[in-house]
Every structure is written in structure tokens, then in C-alpha cells.
Amino acid sequence: MAYIGAGLLAGAQAASAGTKISVNGVCKQFLQSQPGWFTRQWTYGTEALREINFDFPRDSFVSVLGPSGCGKTTLLRIVAGLIEPTSGQVTIDGAAVAGPRRGSGMVFQYIGLFPWRTVEENVFFSQEMNLHRGLSAAEREAARRFIRMVGLQGFENAYPHQLSGGMQQRVGIARALAISPDVLLMDEPFGALDAQTRLVLQDELLKICEAYRATVMFITHDIDEAIYLSDQIVVMSRRPGMIKFVVDVDLPKPRYAHDVRSDPKFLAIRSRIWNALRDEIVEAI
Ligand SMILES: Nc1ncnc2c1ncn2[C@@H]1O[C@H](COP(=O)(O)OP(=O)(O)OP(=O)(O)O)[C@@H](O)[C@H]1O
Ligand SMILES: [Mg+2]
User: Which residues, judged by CB distance below 6 Å to any ligand atom, belong to the binding site of ligand 1?
Assistant: First the structure.
């Protein structure tokens, strides 16, 4: 018994050295129900993910790119502990993910704000859920800083229906950042933003990640955005999603959008990823 315990501890320590999130042999096949004689019958339906293996290095920024429907959101939801894999396992700091975890901040593809709460109440609520208690005045003030950081000063007391889609998305980002996450899971967080706000928030996100040292899983369809932000990019095949290849983005940090986007390395990575994704999309049509 002591031996097994020691082994587990050693595993956790080994994982904590360089790896923050470890995805081991993750497969996901969704169940589907059909009408039966007396009750509905459940069978396996869509195979979303097949045999995903990937280690997210501690404090790294990893983007996931892949054709629509290849299982990116499904993978993020598994890492977040919102759904279970059919087989395989995700560990964070060596501990198996068995449900939503304190310290993991999430920005969803479809924002999911509480419509009956104001902007600041939405942001406070995520922190209260994370801490399992109410917030002190100082903690509320700290949370308001994130609202200002995403450019929503003056809208603290607005309700979601009074905001544009891009503004709602920014509340979602503030809400995730306000819990000071050590793991930040972002599903197309800038998808609904106009091009200029998107560029500004990309820079803000880079600064925040450097200041707070979170391990980030970032899903996007934008190849340039992925290269600009990431240390590594995971490129997935069409459904069932498998990892096609992983690119190390060997561009120095801090990055400046204008310099990076004209760097020959940037252009080489972009054409490699675009060729791979184009093949996946063309073959699917
Ligand atoms: N709850 C569910 N029940 C059944 N099938 C699902 C469920 N969620 C996702 N799927 C299926 O799993 C596959 C992967 O979906 P997922 O949302 O992960 O794709 P995605 O890569 O995020 O796509 P997009 O880029 O369009 O957001 C799709 O075929 C989808 O229909
Ligand atoms: Mg998705």
C-alpha cells in the first residue's frame, strides 16, 4: 500500500516538473438514443475523438486548430471535467480530472452569461463558485479590474442583453481571468469580436499570461492568431479528431504583432498549417 502511494506521489511530482496537463489516450464517442419498444435505447453514435495524447507544458500557451466538427470543443470540455472521455484520462498536476476543478478558468464558444445578473455580478459569481464563499470588498474591486482590462468600464451594471455580442464575449473573458486561473481553457474566445478589438485582446492576453503564468489551451480557427499567441500548436484532423501534428512556435517573446507577422518563421508555419488544414477541409467536402 505504502509502495503504491509512493508511486502515485512520484508520478504526481514527475508530472508537476514540466507537465501541467496530460491528455492520455483520450477517446470520445457520444451516445445517441433511439426509440425502442418500451423505452429509448442508447447506442454509440458520433466518434468525436480518437486516441488523443498530448502533454501541455507548465505555463505554456497551446492552441488547437482543426476543421469544424473535429472535436476541439469536446476535448476542451473533457480537460475542463465537464464531460467524461469514453476511454483514456486527463490529469492536471498529476491528479485525474473527475469533474470541474477549482483554478481552471473557462471561456466558452457560446458565452453563457447569466442573463439575470449584471456584468459585474457575472464576474463575481464565477469567483464565488471557485472560492465557495462570498467576496470581500477588496476581492470585488480586484474583479472590477478585469472588467476594465477588457474595456468594459462603464458597463459594470449593464445586463447581458444590453451588450453587443463582442462585449458579452469580453465579459466571458473577464469572468475566466478573475479567478486567477492556473489553467485557462478558451474556446474561440475572440470569435465574436471585431478585428480591431481582437488584436487588442490578443496582446492583453499575452501580457496577462506572462504576468499570471497560466497554462492555456486556446481553440481558434485563426491560424495567424494561433501562431502569434502560442508556444505550441496542435493541428487536428477532421472527425474523428486525431492529432495530425504539433508545431513548436519558435518565435521570441515578448512578441510584437507587426514584427512577428512578417517574420519568415511565421510565414513558414502558417503555410505548413494552412496546407494541412486545407487538405482536411477539401477531403471532407
Ligand atoms: N453532446 C453531444 N452529443 C452528440 N454529439 C456531439 C455532442 N457534442 C458534440 N458532438 C459531436 O462531436 C463532434 C465534435 O464536436 P465539437 O463541438 O467538439 O467540434 P469542434 O471541433 O469544436 O467544431 P467547431 O469548430 O465547429 O466548434 C461533432 O460531430 C458533433 O456533432
Ligand atoms: Mg467548437
Answer: 30, 46, 48, 66, 68-74, 109, 239
